[in-house]
Amino acid sequence: MTDIRGATSALRQSSERAAHTMSGYGMLLLLLLPIAGVVGAISQIDRVADAVIVSTLLVSCFLFLFVIAGFYLLQPNQAVVITLFGDYRGTDRTSGLRWTWPWMIKKKVSVRSNNIISDRIKVNDLRGNPIEMAAQVVWRVTDTAQALFDVDDYKAFVMVQIEAAVRTIGSRYPYDDFEHQEVTLRGNHDQVGGELRAELIARLTVAGITVDECGFTHLAYAQEIAGAMLRRQQAQAVVAARTTLVEGAVGMVEMALALLSEKNVVELDDERRAAMVSNLMVVLCGERDTQPVVNAGSLYQ
């Protein structure tokens, strides 16, 4: 990204400025003059010399075409970039019927929000695992001069930079952390999405484009390791569940032995205590329901 910024900063950066244009509604009144001239010339065709009639008609037609060629229409959240012989003359953002000199070249640019969902791309995360990622980005043009003159095709530029930013963010973090001690792509959507937005804004500033919202629409392990990672997740879940179960069972055994000793229910030597602990652990940690066994003898028989 540093190389991109360094290369673009060496270019002559454009900057949007207001164009000197006029309201088209006032120019509509000016159209009445050539129309009146044509009507007057036709009405006086038998009273005035033919040369005067022809001159009046030519001047009226020229004035009509001159005025009509300068009209253009702008809808809300739409701008027009005006150039003269390749020189940037300004941008008009005033909606409605507008007018400028006919020899001005007018290029319309939408400043509305655009929504793009990028293609799924394969990225290696921080740990080198291949993952698939796709992002949804809401962007809009903020500087029409930069969008048209500083990049060749600003829409294609946005698509390329989205892919580059997704690769950068995807390689910055691991996909998942089973110990929940690191920032991950899967577990920290808001933080990672904020960094993706900041990365995109930094990359798209050269084109006069900002990003209003972005996030991941697809995030998963690549197919070649998806099965192995699923088995790993299942194993991690089983280990975590077993750890919690054993910790709870040990606490219950300690409590049972303490209560038996405290209330003098039974006197237990080391061997009987070990047998009771074994039985309680089997009962508490077993996956199946236990079946009671009545011992009619003693522990030593």
TrEMBL record:
What stretches pass through the bilayer? Answer: 25-45, 51-74
- One Pfam family, short name: Band_7
Which keywords annotate this record?
A: Membrane, Transmembrane, Transmembrane helix
Its membrane topology is listed as: Single-pass membrane protein
Task: Domain (Band): give its ranges.
Answer: 69-237
- What CDD domains does its record include? SPFH_like_u2
Gene3D superfamilies recorded for this chain? Band 7 domain
Q: What is this protein called?
A: Band 7 domain-containing protein
Species whose genome carries this gene: Sphingomonas psychrotolerans
